[in-house]
Amino acid sequence: MAEVKSLAYAIVNATDLDAWYDYGTNVIGLQVGERTDERIRFRMDHKLYRLEINKAEEDRITHIGWEVKGPQELEELANAVREAGYDVQRPASEEVEDRCVVDMYRFTDPDGTVQCELHYALYDSLENFASPLGHRFVTGTGGAGHVFQLVKDVAAYEKLYFDVLGFRLSDWISFKGLKLTFTHCNPRHHSFAFGGGVPGLPTAIGHLMFEVEDIDHVGRAHDKVLNGAARMINGLGRHTNDKMISFYMDSPSGFGVEFGTGGLLVDDETWTPTWYTKTEYWGHSPHLTLAKDDPKNYG
Questions:
Q1: From 3.10.180.10, 3.20.20.300, 3.30.470.30, 3.10.20.740, which CATH number describes the 6-120 domain?
Q2: Taking the domains of the chain in order of start, what are their residue ranges?
Q3: Separation of alpha carbons 165 and 184, rounded Å
Q4: What are the two backbone dihedrals, phi and then psi, of residue 127, each rounded to the nearest 5 degrees?
Q5: Dist CA 53 CA 49 (whole Å)
Q6: Is the pLDDT of residue 177 over 90?
Q7: What is the reported pTM?
């Protein structure tokens, strides 16, 4: 069965590219791979980019790139998504080329929140990666990090990610009256997590996570945010399920960014899912007062 292998990239609309340039380079430590008046592409490893920020009149995450092994797997998975009832389209060749992948298909997720792009072979850069802050990001087989999303129809996301895209269950957490589901498609503890199904809650991506190798880099970024480089959402803490030591901050486009280190790796041969009753062993104290239904309150 063809399945997703990793989270390759995220595409973001932004009203302020200059704010993203400063935030991406001086807080997260991403390398600028491309900058024009219309977009910034950030690198975190040998790939041409992992995060693309496009100039727009609104702020939101528009596309998530899920990578598959190769052309046969792409066709099989696109057909499986189509058979599951989604309108799967192949973008024009110019758009595929601009995305810097060999081939791709696109469909809208169950809630109409984000475009999911199935693709293979995101291009490598010919230049060595060099973080302006000396960071070494954890990517490898795990990809760019993870996505947490509040959703309207939990069952639809379970069917899509488990039955169609081939994700496996990592575990669950009870949080603020919700069951949060954590899923993996490679050794990273989770690449996609979701929760919801409660009337009145918005449907939106609450945060993206980026992981680095060194706890000192996390601590220095935490200090910068405490000193006003970005708005702190939750202070430093350690999660119960993936063991990540991290903190949460606001991005210039209004969604959260989790920045951490030490995430757990999953071995499917021995892994047994667990239900947790708290998200953290310690820390993650709230710093930013949020509206009750803000997606950043979850995950």
A1: 3.10.180.10
A2: 6-120, 140-297
A3: 11
A4: -110, 145
A5: 11
A6: no
A7: 0.95
